[in-house]
Amino acid sequence: MEKGNATSLFHYTNTFENLTGILRKGFLPNYCREVMPDGNILGIPMVSFCDIPLTRAGEHRSRYGKFAVGLGEKWGTMQDLNPILYIKSAHLKSSMQSLVLSMENSRMLRHEKIEELRHDPKYKDIFVGFSDALNSSELLKLIDEKDRHLFSFIGESVDVSTLHQMQGYMKLHSFTDDKGRVIYNYDDREWRYVVSGSSEKERWLRGENEYNNWRGKTDKPKPRSTFAPLRFTAHDVQYILVEKESESLKLIDAVNRMKTIGGNEVADDSDRQLLLTKVLSVERLSRDF
Q1: Alpha carbon 47 to chain centroid distance?
Q2: What is the pLDDT at residue 115?
Q3: Which of 41-45, 61-65, 239-243 has the lowest mean pLDDT?
Q4: What pLDDT does residue 131 have?
Q5: 74: helix, coil or strand?
Q6: How many angstroms separate the CA atoms of 224 and 203, rounded?
Q7: In the 8-state DSSP scheme, what is residue 27?
Q8: Contact call for residues 182 and 176 (beta carbons, < 8 A)
Q9: Measured between alpha carbons, how far is 67 from 175 in angstroms, rounded to an integer?
Q10: CA contacts within 13 A on the Cβ side of 236
Q11: Long-range contacts of residues 173-177, Cβ cutoff 8 Å, at least 24 apart
């Protein structure tokens, strides 16, 4: 990593209960409301991290929580975490709008062609068991294998699903909040684990209404995650950050009672003891560094 970045990827959370939940179950992806460069709203299932060093993360902690788990960059690479692209240029925003429009046009062209093929006896065997052609990448693959020329009219080099997923790694450089303050997303130095959205079970939410229908009242917690956890082992963890020294003692008791760590069954007590060597408090960090 370049100078000024941490060698760990940190996920911050705002309660002790959330922290212990992560240590037991792993990271549970959930929908986050994201404003795309083209102005559209997406609900993207993800887990967010940052690579800000602990000694420089004061403002980040105040926004996202004083509890954190830090994992090694090697673990992040193996789990397909990526730093996101912050977009500020008006020209690039315009290019992104054109790209998204191209993606939607390609999607609709494929859908129209698939609906046409659905009634063709030649492809009858392929459609058995598929009720939703639009959302089935496997169906597209089977049709392409049978008749590769069918989709050449939209350009075989355009992988719509890949372009769609790229949106999960884009964010506006800054925005103005409801109080008129300019918030710089760029300062978060965010990395993400993004659920691909390649199946109906993993689908993304599209548009403000769809996201709000899922989210419900904003004064209540988000609905529970329905996605598979992002797992880790005690060896992957480099730091566990709590707010106060007294919470370090509380965490010892919680870890010693854990039957799973990071979503995996505890092999033996050495895993619990290893995890406890990674605990650091903000109180101690402020005092000693």
Answers
A1: 4
A2: 74
A3: 61-65
A4: 56
A5: helix
A6: 15
A7: B
A8: yes
A9: 26
A10: 21
A11: 173/86, 173/87, 173/88, 174/88, 175/35
Percent of the chain at pLDDT above 70? Answer: 75
Residue 37, amino acid: P
Residues 156-191 as b/e (b if ≥16 CB within 10 A, e otherwise) read eeeebeeebbbbbbbbbeeeeeeeeeeeebeebbbb
Query: For residue range 180-215, what is the model confidence (pLDDT) as tens digits?
Result: 989 899 999 999 999 987 777 888 998 999 999 999
Paired strand residues for 30: 46
CA distance 212 to 144: 37
Are 208 and 41 in contact, with CB atoms under 8 Å apart? yes
- The pairing of strands 85-87 and 170-172 is parallel
Long-range contacts made by residues 14-22, C-beta under 8 angstroms, separation at least 24? 14/64, 14/65, 14/66, 14/67, 15/65, 15/67, 16/67, 16/242, 16/247, 16/250, 16/251, 18/65, 18/67, 19/67, 19/68, 19/69, 19/240, 19/242, 19/251, 20/251, 20/254, 20/255, 22/69
Strands, E assignment, the chain: 8-13, 30-35, 41-50, 67-72, 82-83, 85-87, 170-172, 174-176, 182-184, 190-194, 205-206, 237-242, 260-261, 264-265, 279-281
Q: Which residues of 264-274 are buried (b: 16+ CB within 10 A; e: fewer)?
A: eebeeeebbee
Spatial separation of the C-alpha atoms in residues 235 and 47, rounded to whole Å: 20
Pairing of strands 190-194, 82-83: antiparallel
User: For the segment 76-112, what is each residue's pLDDT rounded down to a tens digit?
Assistant: 999 999 999 888 865 555 656 666 666 666 666 666 7
